[in-house]
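Module 6 notes. Inverse folding takes a fixed backbone as the condition and produces residue identities as the prediction. Think of it as a translation problem where the source language is geometry and the target language is the twenty amino acids. Below is one complete input and output pair. Work through it position by position during the lab.
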């Protein structure tokens, strides 16, 4: 009997080692998420909510129903339950410094398109919008931001743009004043992003495992941060092969500082997934300043690339 089976009797629902393996296979096939052995308790606690909602008595019953004609709505609930949504405004702030520098160097008035591939509850795409407003010094910059996520629940939160005040505690006073409205009365303790900021964003559900993406390129910057760490290498490669063609020839690709895509797509042509993954993984790239940030790279036609520096140290 496994440790998982041993504790099953103390739980509200029957949850065996086989159930856990089934969940792992299903979520990997549906969303590309590779769950580690250590995620047993997380899986139980999150999926148990679905059992309670559906008044089922075991994981086996739930998984059988899901596989034998589960509705699209329930598959989405299953996926939503197992996604991780850790985010904050201006997380890894040096990335936003790099984006602002990139936008400021563009000819004045030149439109820019940005894709946030893991919007979560909205803090990242709104941080992108704030960065664009500050770069152009206007609430109506020539910037369009596409914000996507597989989790429809968090995407709905993002689209509302309403947050607890403590979510913006660490923002500068000027940013709070310019980009947020403080709630009063029934909305006390909350804030809402200002309407001009909301108008810069379009929110759409998207599974990065889809065979093709509905949007058209090119994007001048793609933020796909702290997503690939949940994918295995073959899945990373498949996603990169769909993303890279959507990035402009001199665009920026942002990955989380702990993410490495090397080796991916060795047989891909220059400018493809291997070109990008190699540059993202290579920590020996020539810095332009004493502090070159891994995770922020330009896409170039040649196999050589230079990192985009940031004035702020890496966290």
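Target side of the pair, the amino acids:
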């Amino acid at each position: 009997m496994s440790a998982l089976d041993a504790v099953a009797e103390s739980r509200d629902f029957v949850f065996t080692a086989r159930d856990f393996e089934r969940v792992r296979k299903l979520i990997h096939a549906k969303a590309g998420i590779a769950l580690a052995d250590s995620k047993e308790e997380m899986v139980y606690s999150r999926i148990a909510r679905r059992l309670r909602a559906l008044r089922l008595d075991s994981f086996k019953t739930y998984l059988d129903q899901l596989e034998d004609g589960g509705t699209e709505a329930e598959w989405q609930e299953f996926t939503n339950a197992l996604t991780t949504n850790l985010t904050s405004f201006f997380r890894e702030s040096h990335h936003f410094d790099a984006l602002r520098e990139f936008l400021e160097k563009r000819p004045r008035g030149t439109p820019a398109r940005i894709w946030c591939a893991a919007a979560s509850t909205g803090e990242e795409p709104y941080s992108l919008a704030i960065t664009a407003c500050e770069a152009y010094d206007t609430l109506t910059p020539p910037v369009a931001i596409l914000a996507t996520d597989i989790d429809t629940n968090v995407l709905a939160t993002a689209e509302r743009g309403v947050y607890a005040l403590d979510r913006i505690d660490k923002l500068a006073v000027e940013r709070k004043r310019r980009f947020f409205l403080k709630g009063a009365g029934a909305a006390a303790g909350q804030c809402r992003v200002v309407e001009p900021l909301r108008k810069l964003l379009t929110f759409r559900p998207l599974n990065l495992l889809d065979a093709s993406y509905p949007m058209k390129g090119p994007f001048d910057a793609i933020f796909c941060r702290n997503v690939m760490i949940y994918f295995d290498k073959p899945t990373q490669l498949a996603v990169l092969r769909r993303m890279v063609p959507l990035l402009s020839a001199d665009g920026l690709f942002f990955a989380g500082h702990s993410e490495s895509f090397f080796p991916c797509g060795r047989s891909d042509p220059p400018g493809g997934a291997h070109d990008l993954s190699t540059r993202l993984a290579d920590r020996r790239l020539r810095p332009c300043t004493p502090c070159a940030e891994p995770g922020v790279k330009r896409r170039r036609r040649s196999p050589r690339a230079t990192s985009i520096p940031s004035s702020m140290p890496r966290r």
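Reference fact for the lab report: Residues 277-294, 300-315 have pLDDT under 50 and may be disordered.
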